[in-house]
Amino acid sequence: MKQVTASGQTVEDAVQSALVQLNTTEDHVDIQVIEEGKKGMFGLFGQKRAIVQVALKENPVDQAADYLKEIAQAFSSDVLVHVKLVEKHITFELEGEKIAMIIGKRGQTLNALQHLVQVMLNRHAEDRYRVVVDAEGYRSRRKDTLEQLALRLADKAKKIKKPVTLEPMPSYERKIIHSVLQNQQHVETLSDGQEPNRHVVIKPVK
Amino acid sequence: MEALITSIVKPLVEHPDDVSIDVKEEASKIVYHLTVNQADVGKVIGKNGRIAKSIRTIVYAAGTDTKKRIYLDIM
C-alpha cells in the first residue's frame, strides 16, 4: 500500500502536502494523525509541527483490473484492460495480441477468468459486484451466435415434434437462449441438469 | 508458470505467504503441486471445485506453448 508521512504547521497543512505528494484527493485516502501541531507561545516557544500519515486506499476495482492484467500477461505481453463500471456491474474489456488464446474454446478460458475475478473482487466486499470479462467483443459475437442457434433449433424442435437438447452452458448464456425464444409461441424452453452440466432444452408446444 | 499460479492464487487467500508450489518434472508431464494454508483450502477449491476448475482451465491454456503436459495438483 502506498503511503506517505507529511508534516505542516497544522494538521490540514500536513494533509494537503501529503495529498500533493500522492497526487490524489481526500476521498481516496486514509488519514492518521500522529502528532497534532501546536502553535506555541507567540509563535516562538513550544512550537510543534503537525505530523500525519496518509495512505492511499486500495480501490477494489483497480485491484481486480491489476489481477486480470497479471494473469493475461502469461498469455501475451501487451494486453490492455479497459474498465467500465456502471453501478455494481463491471465490464473488463481485454485488448491485445493473441486474444484468441485468452478466450479459449467456446470462451472457456475467458469464463474461467471471469469467475476468478468475480471471486477475488467479492471476497471481502459487502456489496457484491457483477463481473463481465470480455475480449475483443467476444460476448456480443457469442450472443449473436447463440440467438441464431436458438432460432434454428426452435424450428427443428417444431419440425421433428421432439425436444431438442443443447450443450451445457453457463447461466448467462442460457439466459440469452431463454429470452430470445420467450416470444416464440410454438416452443417453450427450460433448463435441465445440475451445474456445471446444466443445459437448455427446447420443447415444441402441442 | 509458477509465477502465473501464485499470482492467480495469492489474491484469493487470507494467508498469501503460505502459498507454495512444488514442481516435479516427469518424462512427459510437469506436475505443479500447490499448497496453501489449511484455512484457505476451501478458497482455492470452491463450491463443487469450481474455483479449482477455473484455475486449472487458465493454467492449462497458458501452458499450451510448452511441449510437456501440465498438471496442477491442489493440496
UniProtKB/TrEMBL annotation, chain A:
Classification via Pfam families: Jag_N, KH_KhpA-B, R3H
SUPFAM superfamilies: R3H domain
Top-rank taxon: Bacteria
Keyword RNA-binding applies: yes
CDD domains xref list: KH-II_Jag (cd02414), R3H_jag (cd02644)
Domain named R3H: residues: 140-206
Any Gene Ontology biological process: peptidoglycan biosynthetic process
GO CC entries: cytoplasm
SMART domains linked: Jag_N (SM01245), R3H (SM00393)
GO molecular function (one): RNA binding
Keyword Heme tagged: no
Matching InterPro entries: Jag_KH, Jag_N_dom_sf, KH_dom-like_a/b, KhpB, KhpB_N, R3H_dom, R3H_dom_sf, R3H_KhpB
Location in or out of the cell: Cytoplasm
Protein keywords: Cell shape, Cell wall biogenesis/degradation, Chaperone, Cytoplasm, RNA-binding
Start and end residues of each stretch annotated as Jag_N domain: 5-55
The record's note on its domains: Has an N-terminal Jag-N domain and 2 RNA-binding domains (KH and R3H).
Functional summary from the UniProt entry: A probable RNA chaperone. Forms a complex with KhpA which binds to cellular RNA and controls its expression. Plays a role in peptidoglycan (PG) homeostasis and cell length regulation.
Family: Belongs to the KhpB RNA-binding protein family.
Summary of subunit composition and partner proteins: Forms a complex with KhpA.
The name this protein goes by in its record: RNA-binding protein KhpB
Organism of this sequence: Streptohalobacillus salinus
Lineage: Bacteria, Bacillati, Bacillota, Bacilli, Bacillales
UniProtKB/TrEMBL annotation, chain B:
GO terms, molecular function: RNA binding
Location in the cell: Cytoplasm
Subunit and partners: Forms a complex with KhpB.
Keyword list, A-Z: Cell shape, Cell wall biogenesis/degradation, Chaperone, Cytoplasm, RNA-binding
Statement: the UniProt record of this protein carries the keyword RNA-binding: yes
GO BP annotations, alphabetical order: cell wall organization; peptidoglycan biosynthetic process; regulation of cell shape
InterPro entries: KH_dom-like_a/b, KH_sf_prok-type, KhpA
Record HAMAP family: KhpA (MF_00088)
Species lineage: Bacteria, Bacillati, Bacillota, Bacilli, Bacillales
Pfam family, one: KH_KhpA-B
tRNA processing among keywords: no
Organism: Streptohalobacillus salinus
Function description: A probable RNA chaperone. Forms a complex with KhpB which binds to cellular RNA and controls its expression. Plays a role in peptidoglycan (PG) homeostasis and cell length regulation.
Gene it is expressed from: khpA
GO cellular component terms, A-Z: cytoplasm
Membership in a protein family: Belongs to the KhpA RNA-binding protein family.
Main localization of the protein described in the UniProt heading: cytoplasm
SUPFAM superfamilies per the UniProt record, alphabetical: Prokaryotic type KH domain (KH-domain type II)
Protein name stated in the entry: RNA-binding protein KhpA
